[in-house]
Amino acid sequence: MKSIKSRLTLVSMVVLVVFMVLTAIALERAVVKRALQAEEDGLQLLIYSLLAAVDQDSRGLSITVSEDRLFEPGLVIRNSGLYALLYNRYKREIWRSESITVSFPAIGGIDPGEWDFQTIEHLATPYFRLGFSLQWPDVNNQLQRYEVVIWRNAVDYFEQLNRFRQTLWAWLIITTILLLVIMYLVTRWSLRPLQQIRLEVKAIEDQKQSGFEQDYPAEIAPLTENLNILLKREQYQRQRYRNAMDDLAHSLKTPLAVLTGLSDQDAIDQAHIETLRDQTERMNQIVSYQLQKTTGSSDIRISKPVDLIKIVDKLLSALEKVYQEKGIVVERDLPAQILLRMDEGDCLEVVGNLLDNAFKYGKKRILIEASTSESRSMTLAIEDDGDGLPGEQIQQILNRGTRLDQATEGQGIGLAVVADIVESYNIELNFSAAKLGGLRSSLGFQTI
To answer: Domain range spanning residue 71?
Structure first.
């Protein structure tokens, strides 16, 4: 039973059949109990009518039933199926109804005022028998004990009961079959999303679609959403490897060109050796960084929070030394702390590239400010007072290998790397004209 549909169908069928059988048994017993109670009540009323017709006999020593006061026609019609008898204290029959054509056994001892109702089979015929014991004064005012017994033929009762049972179980079977069919259809309909998942997985394997596209029930939606996240991460990681190879190729062009130039020299002096050492060290750093970037995994949900202010301080301390001769003044409008759930290396790469560009292209001033909104989102903006870029060129700086300023050293991949990283963290990266006259770069993200 590896199929969920088979399991649900089997369990539903067993539970439904057991439930319907138990329900039918309980219903049948309730109906039988109520029908027997109705029979007993009817016979009790008949005994009361007989007692209303009781009189003392002519000698006053016993009692009898006056035929002219009997209002039940079944007691005067022979073989009517309704019979009555009256016994004295010695169990001797002292009166019987005219309907009796066969003999009936005497009833057992009954206490005065007590009723005795039973279903008895007599002469291969089922009967209802109700006995009642009473005391009646004789001519000397002495209480004498008597027993009134009513017999009713129960053949019709059991025939109706059998018809009821047949009808009950017939409808039970029909209802159970219909419910089983309905439950099977409902189970099949309920499990259809799983079938749809199988089809979508096959489409993903065949590269006909990149993820789960259908709307699924609330119980399955988290699964498909998480699978889409995993698929997106896998696609991102694959693209990251491709980009890393492109970045590596772009980054190694300049050092290789320098080395090629050195190989064309007839003699290599100490300065050339230093250049050779610098370029090989640079190549080693580039390869190490790209390997670290391709093997790293920046998952915003599991990254340890970093303090963005500390990152900015650390980077500014280094960049102010690198660009010391430019004498750039950095203006800050930042809070004491900004916590961001991001890998520290990725954060250094993103903010470092943006700050490095600001120092590189700025003239005398750089402005770093942060602003918050009501939904815990924050924007970190970095502005410089450089020449800036026309609007049509702003988007081009995100393309790998594109350098709009050929006079400045670089490979044109820094901002492309930044764009890749911020995309993996759902951080919004924008470029626009700055109030200082240069370029304004901004990062929009959710704080903790």
So the answer is: 4-161
